[in-house]
Amino acid sequence: MNYDKLLFDADATLYDFKAAEKQAFMLTMENHGFDCSLGSYELYSKINDDMWKRLERKEIGKAELRVERFASYAAATHQLMDAEQISMEYTNNLAEMGILFDDAMAVIQTVSQKIECSIASNGIGYVQRRRFAKSGIEPYFKHLFISEELQAEKPDPKFFKRVEEVLEIHDPKRILFVGDSLSADIKGGVMAGWTTVWYNPDHLKNLSEYQPDYEIDSLSQVIDLLN
């Protein structure tokens, strides 16, 4: 099938978010004299992941998420910290971490010569845009669709509808969408009628009710889907 547009999720698809998250967390904790051991980061990361799942389910708002993740972390580790201040500093540090996966740039450069590419990301607007600029990928993408700016989080159908409106899409099946999250990317893409590609480098089992059109374990396989 020929596709009109190619969209990528950002974090854990093109970007090594865990590496960026770890660096930003460690730097923030170190600056304030808090525990910055590997175990402390792993606990924070789990709390953060859980918060983003709650956001996908519309159980909390993004402003609440940004502060509550650090308030929950502080409570779990019995540390006294100003969660709002720590959140702000962490977010600013994260914005400087545009760490791509090793093969991402080469794939982006190749596919952008074949088809118009955009990014569809759940995230904080200024953080994502700063990371895009730091990583050098901006020239290869027509649009950066960020949930905070669209006022809707994947898998909310509003997110996908607003993307379609900007792209002037008439046949949603002609959008090829690559993402790592079954609950955000694949679920949302399937509901929107897009052609979905589950990026699954860790070979996880799909226990959800949403089945992608394709499953890949390497970003370079996206090139094959366009040939």
From TrEMBL:
MF-aspect GO terms: 5'-nucleotidase activity
List UniProt keywords, sorted A-Z. Answer: Hydrolase
What Pfam families has UniProt attached to this entry?
A: HAD_2
- Which SUPFAM superfamilies does UniProt cross-reference here? HAD-like
InterPro entries xref list: HAD-like_sf, HAD-SF_hydro_IA, HAD-SF_hydro_IA_YjjG/PynA, HAD_2, HAD_sf, PGP-like_dom2, Pyrimidine_5'-ntase_YjjG
Q: Which domain of life is it from?
A: Bacteria
- Asked if the keyword Hydrolase belongs to this entry, the reply reads yes
Q: Which NCBIfam families match?
A: HAD-SF-IA-v1, HAD-SF-IA-v3, YjjG_YfnB
Q: What protein am I looking at? A: 2-haloacid dehalogenase/putative hydrolase of the HAD superfamily
Q: Which organism is it from?
A: Dielma fastidiosa
